[in-house]
Design the sequence.
């Protein structure tokens, strides 16, 4: 109940601080019989890993995950899967300033209020480093969903500060360091980031994530709607300030005749719903979008207070992402995968298995 | 786990269909000793009630709530509070069409896929009528938060289709049928809605909700961040397609120097965070916003299919809100109250009570 | 989390005080498509109902249950099932004494410590009257288990004070007011109870409950072992002080060669395990037993204190069961049914459906 | 929901197989500010450790626990505490027989039915080795309870097969390898165990556990009664077949006048309740007792079947405890500590802190 667990049937519980001994996670409720090895997770971990381009933090973490339990002779056994990533690149440095000051827009101030104590090294528990474990756990969910149901989950950066991707070419997403699906915008992004880094400032971003081939029927009506759980999952990612499903905030100005997705025997004629009706998947692609704020770790000085309430000027040195959104795509995919996995198991528990083969109507 | 419960320590579990015998709810975990009567809930229920202006559905429901347990001699006892609202205005009508057709953008199609059976009368469980119980439960949370912590939760309609409120005058919010805080825009909204009704179409809306005087320290880091739980709560309201905290999607184009809320000994200098840092309340006002889609129950015909997969033209007669957002403000406030209440108890469980009197720094 | 909910996937949440307006319950997670009417529950409610013989309390409650939601056209819809029993026989009486005194061995003292306030009328929430709702909910579970899996759940009184049933003749269980399976002991029990009533004292009892035809594979290893959940469920019944599975406390003096249930291709050769190995059902009958303490509501005076800490002599008048165990058999059956139902759904969620038809080996 | 987590606010989630890479656990919800080091856990781990006398298994495990997170500068931070014990003494051996046979009274058969796959090395997840993590987690709870509330939790072996302890001398408990509180019985136990080992058989045991100085008010009425959660916790320990609270099964033959614990201004006059009334602690010592079955790993041949359903004769060689009860005392204490800790936090969440200093009446 202290918020370190996500999911009801497929549960992911994480631990670990940025500069502690290790990050870890327990996946409970994974169905038995799934072929699983470290390599399945490493692929996604490497996509999130820092230091792969000049546009992300230069902290170098191997982020090598070890499976400690729950897998036997290459297959999941149905028992909890323990995962561990040892922290390797914790530079010893002088933490006295960070220990006594509250960095603006960081969790320093609120953790102190909540707990009366905090591990200030590198942000401690509030560091986005924690998301490595989500990516590892998401890889397990993703593999199951793909093998069992043919679900494909993919994300991309749709906007970096003022620059919007205008084309969605999935082939391009992994051809550039931004997960940008519009090749034409990549040079602009490169230039923008280079200028930003020089300037010492940071910028926000928007990530979209799409799940295709999701069978209709997943999601619990009322409080645990599929979209509500997705909003929960995505908003729980560090720096996220907004979540949309389907048409999202555009719905505000839409008329009913425009928004409603009409149906024909061949399928839906539009997808303003983003694949969710009444909280339950419709068989259309699940489409979500999230806003990430600019990172607050800047070398440009900011006004703040110290732990005694005195005014201070804070400068954050060290290795930080000038745009945390750049590495967020694999995290968003992972959270989408975990949500869908959890809802698949929940659905199967109450209602029996989904009909994979014969949707009533086709997909858009 | 079937999604009809919200909250971990202050839990709200609802039941009931739109045209069934009754709606009900169990509030579990309410602290003992709170003075409580039906009147406390009725005030908010009446604000959500249909039929109070020509701009909402003309269905007339008394929505009179009865407390069946958990209150003794005018005070909560700490045992579960059972609430009941009997349904009174269920017109007997011919449901044969609605039984055999899937209304576009409704939950008909997805419920059928999920359960293989559905109560089609008035939308059954997927009807927004269910939210009456959230409002009743929210009133309990709100009262506790106000009395114990001095928290004030208020919402308003910030946009109705293309018309945006430009002033935030809390006094105005209850002076018009829209919960609009900008008196100058009310005539425009009136005219817009009249035209829309004539046209037979519907429109979306945006609701903002603000909690003031929230002590710093509420919220669980990682998955159950205060903002993540809020996103979950708001996205679980019927018709909601997007949620923002603080600067929300504007964060995408903000630079770090602009977004980060600097602090001085006198308080924060801005509130882009919306009162939440690292998932934990900062003592600033909690600010959330949500987008509601236009209602899909239209008398303008729409293409769809019947239960056998044949094409049909669907016309929805009956009494429906042309803008579901108009009645949504009390629901958003209720969900905000439930989230804060739950997190207050969760915080108190792990960390002991909050320091109400002496925040380190003042509020903006 | 305030303990009024049982189950993880098939959840039962109850509310209501002994002398309040009503008792109620929400069953969430029930699979759709189950034929269900009030009559299905009434049968078991009537078995638990007081006043059916001279050996139980003469309080007369109709205990008529109403289904308020979740059932449509005679079948469950998968949405929450709201149940209500209005209290009818609350005699108005003078509660001033009971309000100011703590009855020995009652929850008066502990509720007061916990909540600082209590509904003292008839025991309030701590009254065994609450178990009516468990019986109603258990009837739903029982019906599903029987229809879907062929599971049969039956209980009986195996001991009433010093008198032990020595034969297990299921036909006899419903031929006497004690649920005693040994007809020869009934006259002795009748005489014992008559003497006890005259004396003004009360007595304990032991109830056994057996589930047959449970498929192997139900139960979660480690903390939510099937037997651990059963122990939880049975110990949560008012007045229960001990729970055994299979050989129970006899295991203490058994040697391994005696206790271990050997297997042959035709089945197990004994059932000391009580149908559970490593926390998971083995396909053998699940066998549990529980001890109920004598009721503490006696007209024989007992020493106690009042709310101010002064010594008082407490005499409990009113209508009470001299042996609460007599009416406990349907409650034990109900809790067993709820546990098995919950574990069936949990199993199906993680592992897919059980193989009903082809157990590896036969049952004993 | 797959049963590897215990607790609602103070949650313990474990992973790991007997012969896998490591055992681990995440403690979530621990209050911040508690001084904690590995040594606090090691003390209890060493008490449970195998190989400390000739009467337990000769498997040698260092059982050295590492804290991986949640502790900073010697104090808990309120974030999850990750614990790890690497497995060191996994002898490589021939598992072909154990892989193809179901050992009688083991979880082999049921795991296979549940998951269709199992890690058969040393019992895999069903091995009592998992309880090492419970002991580690329990040590954290125990330390908090002691420091914050002055609660003391102690257990002892009250019966080993036919030999009952007749005196309760706490000083003796740690003076012998059995946790026996009656020094006079120790030689008899030694002789009994030596004979048993020679014989190749095993025997059951009974463990009692007592918590003193528990404040009144802990426990949630109805389903999560303190005694129900205790029964759940104790029954979840490997080999446990029965649980009693207070008078337990003796209640069956007690009359109400005998069982009810009368109160005077100086305190209770007896403790048949075992410290729990209506599911809530009364301030008296919490007293529980549990039965452990004899271990089923015997070198004396037993009839069973193989995975193909053919009859086989099973002989279990290797290093096994002839009486699993001998090492169970620290595990029972740990589970009691976790239950009390969880209920303390749950109580504090809903009701605010307990009054530690001024119980209304004294303890017995």
Sequence:
């Amino acid at each position: 109940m202290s918020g370190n667990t996500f999911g009801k049937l497929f549960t992911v519980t994480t631990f670990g601080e940025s500069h502690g001994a290790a990050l870890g996670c327990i996946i409970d409720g994974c169905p038995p019989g799934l072929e699983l090895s470290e390599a399945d997770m490493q692929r996604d971990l490497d996509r999130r890993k820092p230091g792969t381009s000049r546009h992300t933090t230069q902290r170098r973490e191997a982020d090598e995950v070890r499976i400690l339990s729950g897998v036997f002779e290459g297959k999941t056994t149905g028992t909890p899967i323990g995962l561990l990533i040892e922290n390797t690149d914790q530079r010893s440095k002088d933490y006295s300033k960070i220990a006594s000051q509250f960095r603006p827009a960081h969790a320093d101030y609120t953790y102190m209020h909540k707990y009366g104590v905090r591990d200030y090294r590198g942000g401690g528990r509030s560091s986005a480093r924690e998301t490595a474990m989500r990516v590892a756990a998401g890889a397990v969910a993703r593999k199951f969903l793909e093998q069992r149901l043919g679900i494909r989950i993919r994300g991309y950066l749709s906007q970096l500060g003022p620059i919007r991707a205008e084309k969605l070419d999935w082939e391009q997403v992994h051809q550039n360091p931004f997960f940008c699906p519009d090749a034409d915008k990549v040079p602009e992004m490169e230039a923008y980031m280079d200028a930003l880094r020089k300037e010492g400032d940071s910028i926000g971003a928007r990530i979209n994530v799409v799940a295709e081939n999701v069978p209709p029927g997943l999601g619990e009506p009322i409080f645990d709607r599929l979209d509500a759980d997705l909003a929960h999952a995505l908003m729980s990612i560090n720096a996220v300030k907004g979540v949309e499903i389907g048409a999202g905030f555009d719905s505000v100005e839409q008329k009913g005749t425009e928004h409603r997705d009409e149906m024909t025997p061949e399928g839906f004629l539009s997808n303003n719903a983003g694949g969710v009706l009444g909280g339950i998947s419709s068989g259309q692609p699940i489409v979500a979008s999230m806003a990430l704020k600019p990172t607050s770790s800047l070398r440009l000085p900011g006004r703040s207070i110290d732990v005694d309430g005195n005014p201070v000027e804070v400068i954050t040195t060290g290795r930080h992402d000038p745009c945390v959104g750049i590495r967020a795509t694999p995290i968003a995919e992972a959270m989408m995968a975990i949500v869908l996995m959890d809802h698949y198991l929940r659905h199967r528990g109450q209602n029996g298995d989904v009909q994979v083969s014969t949707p009533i109507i086709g997909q858009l």
